[in-house]
Structures are given as C-alpha cells and as structure tokens.
Design goal:
five-stranded mixed sheet; Cobalt-precorrin-4 Transmethylase, domain 1; elongated; alpha/beta; 4pyrrol_synth_uPrphyn_synth; Methyltransferase, Cobalt-precorrin-4 Transmethylase, Domain 2; S-adenosyl-L-methionine; 22 strands; Rossmann fold; EC 2.1.1.107; five-stranded parallel sheet
C-alpha cells in the first residue's frame, strides 16, 4: 500500500507558530524530512523511532538538490511510509512545495498540504512592521529575491511592482539586494523610501536593520547582515518605533545555557524565551533508575502502612514513587494514615496531580525548612520515609534522626552525567557567546563541570544563576561565583531573578 506525504508549513522560525494540524501530522509520521529553516524543536513532536532526514539548503551549501528531495519523498511514500515534509514558512510561498506535490502526483502518490505561517508577514510583524495599515498601505506583494536561474528572462514586472504596490516583501533576497534596489529605483520607487531587513525573524536571534531603498545594499555590507532575511520596502517601516514589541523584551538577545535534565528543561526554556532569551539546552544530567533496581523503594511500599510521615523532596521523587506504587497495583489509599510533607511548590503540585494534598510545605524550600516545620511534630520513634535521589544531601535524614525519628531513606532515582545536546558548549563559553548559565540543582553544577573538564573559568565567563542557596553553595565550593540566587527556590523564582538581574 502507498503511504502519504504531508507537505507541512513549519512556520518562520518560532516553534510556537506551527499549526495544530501540522503538529498532529508530525506525530503520526514514520519519517520526518525537514529543511534548514524548520526549527529543530518541532522534531520533539516526532514519535519514538521515527526516521529523521535533514535536506536543508543554504545559499552556498545544499544537502540535497531539489530533484533528489522530490525522489526521496516519492520513494518513501511509495514504500508505504507516512512522511511529514517540514518546510520553512508556507510550502506554497516560494517553498517549492508545488514541485514536490507535482512529483508525488505524477507517481500516483497521495499528499496533503498543511499551510504554514509565512515569514513574509510574520518576520515583519515580529519587527513591529505591519505589511498593511489603513492610513499607510492598502496593498502588499510578496516577491522572490532569488528567481529560477534557468529562466531566460526575469518573471518580475518591475515597472508595475515598483510603483503599483504599497508594501513589498522580498524573500531570499539578501544576495541580490543591489540588483533588487537598482530595479526598484529605475522603475520609479523613490530612493528615500523606508526599508528594513529582518534576519531570523520571529526567533530570539532576530536582527532588524532599518534603512532606505537607496542605502539598503551598502548598509547590509556595512553591518555584515547575512541570510536568511526578508527585505521590506514601504512607508509601513516607519511604524516600527511605535509597534516594536518583540526585540525590546528585557531578555531579548541574551543567550542562556539551560542545564536541566532533558525531560525537564522545556519549562525553564519556555519561561526564559517568553521574555526574549535565546536558550541553549545542554541537559548535563540524566535521570536513571536507582542502583538497587528499586529494591529499597519496593520494600518501603510493602511496609508503607508502618510510616507516620512520608517526605518528598523533588518532583522526580514523587513521580518515581507513584509510578512504582502503580506497578504494585496500589493507589493513594495505600498511604493510609501517613502525613505527607513536600519541599517546594513544584513538588507540592506534582503530589496534587497524583491525588495527594501535602500536609506540610515549608516556606523555605529546602531541607532546613522542612526540619523547622516538622520539629514540633516528631516524637521519639516517629517513623519517616524519604524517597529521593541517590545524590541528595544527608542534612535532612541526619537531623531527623537526631530528633529521635526512625528514618528510612530509599532511592527513587539517580542523576548521572549526560552527554550535552550541543557539541560545542565548551567552545561557545570560551568565545563568550553564552551570556548566562542557569543551575537548578547541585548536580547540574557538578555535572557541567565534568563535561567541561573542571574548567571553572569557562563557567565564570558567564553570569551564573542559581535556583537557591544550596545550589549557590555548591558553586562556591567548586570555585564558581554565583551572580544570581533566586529568593524563591522554583523555576518561576529563577526566571524572575534572572529578569531582575538584567533590568
């Protein structure tokens, strides 16, 4: 049976601009064929085991020729595969989607078009430039800045275009800018007409160069602006100062290294990107099963009715505990009379998601905080279970034991050093390309150091932001100077602390 190809507009760069239908098609695909301009974050929608094929084309470097891409789609669909073809912007707006669709039709293979947000309007919007405005521009046109080189003559009607349309948006035109501006002026467009180039529009590394038609080529050369960029011509460019909203956010352009575990990095990344940061995810820790293969936790669950208190110290601890409880065909009723304590609002929320309301959540989200809260509730012989990470500090169980409690500490998981998702984190730090590094636990500090060969000077090249005083102390013990320490020891608290620092 033949497969199908979904020709999906991946949007202009901001992964959030992918359509719902586009995401659904990626999820059910056997194969993802993606372009240079398709944000790699979109690959997170792919099913486990899906084949990923990169076919990106840049001005001077083509992974595959278009004819080869066409044949690839034909071969994969012909073999019965469901293919998600991710194309930057919209597949039918200078995306050569029409050529790919025709190749499939000629071979009797089914396809669907999933429109996307084109950079022709979105890059301008993210620069604060509306392509139309009732008092300024009643029309706009989208023009290729790079025509088919096999054509014997230009397909652009320069005379009508130059003076007949209010706003002109050229895609892929940086390399041909001298020719484009020359043609516009020669055909009647005023040289002083406002113009702008938007590079990497909608992404955190967006650059905007405001100029005029006559100065555009020289200004691009002067500022070293490189593709990909759109070229916008028209009086609407003058509205940028009033409508600028994206690239004036407080963290815009700040490159921030996120070191959380891969499965937890997205919340911090999304929060920082909301304020304009460009996040580089380097998950330096990985969450794995405990050394004893859950033997200690299983034993505690079998004797769960004997505990007076269960103290959860992390979201991971909660998740692993209740996963193991479910494996034993048990639910929250098994906890019986035990009181529940949680360190941190995130841990409290995870417990709530599992159907448990914590009895105690200390104001200070650390072991010392829980000790202060439990001090008056502990008697000699009080039995306490602490399911947590192997690497956790000994302060909590030690102090509870001193207070007369009988404490069982069991491993729910362990954190190990993970291979970085970016092969050149060391190089970026050495070159000063990372503005700030976020640490959300002591293990993120020690594991990043391991990955960098204990080169503390590389970390000290950047602003160091810690989720709380314990993580900050780990930094100091390893020769790292913390510049930012959140007062509230949560992801939201860390994001707020970074924002205040840069204010």
């Amino acid at each position: 049976m033949a497969g199908i190809v979904y020709l999906i507009g991946a949007g202009p760069g901001d992964a959030g601009l992918l359509t719902i239908k586009g995401a659904e098609c990626i999820k059910k695909a056997d194969i993802i064929v993606y372009d240079y301009l398709a944000d790699k974050k979109l690959l997170a929608y792919a099913a486990n085991g899906a084949e990923l094929i990169y076919v990106g084309k840049q001005a001077d470097k083509h992974t595959m020729r278009q004819e080869e891409i066409n044949q690839l789609l034909v071969d994969k669909a012909g073999a019965g595969k469901t293919v998600a073809r991710l194309k930057g912007g919209d597949p039918f707006v200078f995306g050569r989607g029409g050529e790919e669709a025709l190749a499939l039709r000629e071979n009797g293979l089914p396809f669907e078009i999933v429109p996307g947000v084109t950079s022709a309007i979105s890059a301008a919007a993210y620069a604060g430039i509306p392509v139309t405005h009732r008092k300024v521009a009643a029309s706009f046109a989208v023009i290729t800045g790079h025509e088919d080189p096999t054509r014997s003559a230009s397909g652009i009607n320069w005379r009508n275009l130059a003076v007949g349309i209010d706003t002109l948006v050229f895609l892929m035109g940086v390399g041909n800018l001298p020719h484009i501006t020359k043609q516009l002026i020669a055909n009647g467009r005023k040289p002083e007409t406002p113009a702008a180039l938007v590079r990497w529009g909608t992404k955190a590394q967006q650059e905007v160069l405001v100029t005029t038609v006559e100065n555009a080529a020289a200004d691009v050369e002067k500022h070293g602006l490189k593709p990909p960029a759109v070229f916008i011509v028209g009086d609407v460019v003058n509205l940028r100062d009033s409508l600028r909203w994206f690239d004036n956010k407080e963290l815009f352009g700040r490159k921030i290294l996120v070191t959380r575990a891969r499965e937890q990095a997205s919340k911090l990344t999304e929060g920082l990107e909301q304020y304009g940061a460009a996040c580089v995810e380097a998950p330096v820790i990985s969450i794995e099963d405990p050394d004893d293969d859950f033997a200690g936790l299983d034993n505690a669950i079998e004797n769960i009715s004997t505990y007076d208190w269960i103290v959860f110290t992390s979201v991971n601890g909660v998740a692993r505990f209740f996963e193991r409880l479910a494996d034993k065909k048990l639910d929250t009723r098994a906890l019986g009379k035990a009181y529940i304590a949680a360190i941190g609002s995130s841990t409290e929320k995870e417990l709530s998601r599992c159907g448990i309301r914590a009895d105690v959540v200390p104001y200070d989200f650390c072991a010392e905080g829980i000790l202060a809260e439990l001090g008056t509730r502990i008697e000699k012989g009080t039995k306490i279970l602490i399911p947590r990470a192997k690497e956790a500090r000994s302060v909590l169980p030690d102090e509870l034991t001193k207070a007369g409690a009988r404490v069982d500490v069991v491993q729910c998981y362990k954190t190990v050093t993970a291979a970085s998702s970016d092969d050149d984190i060391e190089g970026r730090l050495a070159a000063g390309e990372i503005d700030a590094i976020t640490f959300t636990s002591s293990s993120t500090v020690t594991n990043l150091l391991k990955l960098l060969g204990n080169k503390t000077e590389l970390i000290n090249n950047a602003v160091v932001a810690c989720i709380g005083p314990i993580t900050a102390q780990t930094c100091r013990e390893n020769g790292i100077k913390p510049d930012v320490v959140a007062q509230k020891y949560t992801i939201a608290g860390l994001i707020g602390a970074v924002r205040r620092f840069y204010e």
